[in-house]
Amino acid sequence: MQLVIFSLQDKLYGMPSVAVEEITGAVSWTAVPKAPQWLLGLINLRGNVISLLHYERFMNIEDKTENNEELCYNNTIIIKHNGKQVALAVDKVHEVIDINEDDIQLPVEGEGIFRGVFSQKDAVISLIRLSTLFSKNEGSK
Known about the structure:
The protein is mainly β. Helices cover 9% and strands 48% of the residues.
C-alpha cells in the first residue's frame, strides 16, 4: 500500500496515494457564509469548484488560528473518493511511502476518522479513513 504522508501542527498523517489526485501549493479560496468552522471555503482548480477543509478544525485538533484569515499552510491535497473531490489545507507534504498493510495497527475507538496507525522512523503516523472525511464534508455526520 502506498501512502502520502503529511503534517499538521507537528503531527504526521497518511492517506492512500490512489485517493490523491493532486498536490499543490497554498491556494486562495472564497469563503462560504454560515459554513462550518472547518470549511475554509471553495477553491477553483482549473474550472472545478472544490471544498477546501481546514483539517485541524475538521479533526478537532487544538487549533492555533482564531479565524480563517490567520491560517498559514503550505500545501493543498486534492483528494478524490467515490467520484467526489475535496481539498485539504495541510502544513507540509513529506513523502510517499510503501507500507505493508499488516503493519497498520487498528484504532482503539473503532469507526472513527482514523483507519489506524503505524510507526516509521520513530514517528507514529495516523491513517485517515476517507469515507468519514467525505461523509462529514457532505453533512451526513
